[in-house]
Design brief:
Length: 343
């Protein structure tokens, strides 16, 4: 095993050794390119996105590790409402108790699903939690002090979309959507709820680590490394898009009753802002776009952006993530358009 590992390391180091003279020869050009204004902006935006999201991701993995210790499968099943409508309503309001950003939500929910939480409740919590919480509520009020209807519409539409998708998952998803499920879980639909026929087994951390502080931090570190690589890739690509694509060009694409919604939703996806700060960005467009496009930006971003898509793909099956993304886009568009007509 050690010989195989050394050979793998050698296969990486040998090509790197040939790159050294090339880098030395091009050092002055590389230094000039690295110090260019565009790359400086990429670095600044990347660091800003990462530092904004990393604390919430860290909170998420620490909560995930605590749940590994103190939350059992039996406890999760006892606390899960038998009625699917009740379960969706409770999950939609859990963000009030657990105000976690979307970056920290996914590791927490993955842990709860391994403990036995049904998929429809987990999905509802993932979608509503980053929006329906007191921190985001306060931030939105501060960003739009003279327009409280924006805050109310954001909270209401986010809850409605999350609850609707949760019910859709309950009706149509028959298998555990987790990518690395430890056991095949069959959910049988009864008159009132899904019952776990074969509950998922404990994962590797349950078997390999005792419940002490060392195992707690090992588990948290593994979770953080596993999720942060997707955050880094998403933040880097987002920084490049923000740097090399002019915002004026993007706004020019947003003229029109439908194009404005498409632009603001796409803008939210690309910017990948934290839900605690995106309202201040949206306020800069308050004199350019109507209420509906602003709401679509504020609701879609925390539910679906570039970095969270990578995290979802690392946790759930690809087919499930595609269906989930389509449902989010359609419902947010329809809901924000309806709000614009009514308000």
């Amino acid at each position: 095993m050690k010989l195989a590992a050394n050979m793998k390391l050698l296969s990486i180091l040998v090509p790197c050794a040939f790159l050294v003279p090339v880098l030395i020869t091009m050092s002055s050009d590389l230094k000039q390119a690295w110090n260019s204004e565009a790359l400086q902006n990429v670095k600044t935006v990347f660091i800003g996105i990462f530092l904004e999201a990393a604390p919430f991701l860290l909170i998420g993995v620490l909560l995930s590790s605590l749940m590994q210790w103190f939350v059992s499968e039996e406890m999760v099943r006892k606390l899960t409402p038998n009625n699917p409508v009740g379960g969706v309503l409770v999950a939609g309001l859990l963000g009030i108790i657990f105000p976690i950003c979307e970056c920290g939500m996914i590791p927490v929910v993955r842990r709860l699903m391994h403990k036995g939480m049904p998929a429809y409740i987990a999905v509802t919590f993932i979608l509503s939690g980053p929006v329906v919480n007191p921190i985001v509520f306060t931030a939105t009020l501060l960003a739009f002090p003279s327009h409280p209807e924006i805050t109310i519409a954001r909270m209401g539409l986010a809850f409605a979309v999350a609850a609707s998708i949760g019910l859709l998952v309950y009706l149509f998803v028959r298998q555990n959507p987790l990518r690395r499920a430890k056991a095949v879980v069959t959910e049988v639909k009864t008159h009132s709820a899904f019952k776990m026929v074969h509950p998922p087994k404990h994962d590797d951390h349950d078997h390999n680590h005792e419940k002490n502080w060392r195992s707690f931090f090992i588990h948290a570190g593994d979770e953080f490394v596993d999720m942060s690589k997707y955050l880094v890739i998403g933040a880097l690509i987002t920084a490049c898009i923000q740097t090399f694509i002019s915002r004026n060009d993007l706004i020019a694409l947003g003229n029109g009753p439908v194009a404005s919604y498409v632009f603001m939703m796409g803008f939210a996806y690309v910017l990948s802002l934290c839900s605690t700060s995106d309202a201040f960005v949206a306020s800069a467009f308050s004199h350019t776009f109507a209420l509906g496009p602003l709401i679509s930006f504020l609701v879609l971003g925390p539910m679906l952006d570039f970095k969270s898509t990578l995290m979802l793909l690392s946790t759930f099956r690809t087919r499930f993530v595609i269906g989930l993304s389509i449902a989010i886009i359609v419902l947010v568009f329809a809901g924000s358009w309806l709000i614009n007509l009514l308000v």
